[in-house]
Amino acid sequence: MTGPSPEDDDRRWLATVYAVPVVLLTLVSAYFCWTALTIRPSGAWDDDAYAGIVLASAMGVGAAGVAGAGVGVGGARAGAGGRRGGAVGSRCIDHERC
């Protein structure tokens, strides 16, 4: 073969597709972490501010968890042979039958 494999093109495209939601979820997570750090309770009695800190922290951790799961799924999908299937490192010559 003289050119790049079509399978490599599929993996590059798949990595780009998975990168978009991971970046967006990372930005959402960073926003919630920033919010949790900047909320200042007015005193020990300010339960609403403490609840806001807890909620923003939970949302930040949740968004980071979803982003991490997206990275795990994307890596597992690309490592399993991408769209064509097959084992990692399989040497299929005729891609029409793989």
Care to describe what's here?
The structure is a single chain. With 98 residues, the chain is mainly alpha-helical. The chain is 67% helix and 0% strand. It contains 2 helices and no strands. The protein is rod-shaped, with a radius of gyration of 21 Å. It starts with 5 loop residues before the first helix and ends in a 19-residue tail after the last helix. 5% of the residues are buried. Residues 82-87 have low confidence and may be disordered.
Runs in which pLDDT lies below 50 for 5 or more consecutive residues are: 82-87
Average residue-wise pLDDT: 78
The radius of gyration computed from the alpha-carbon positions, rounded to a whole number of angstroms, is 21 Å
Q: Can you tell me the overall shape?
A: rod-shaped
Short summary:
With about 100 residues, this protein is mainly alpha-helical.
Task: Chart the SSEs and their pairings.
Layout: H1 6-38, H2 47-79
Helix pairs in contact: 1-2
Search tags:
98 residues; mainly alpha; 67% helix; rod-shaped
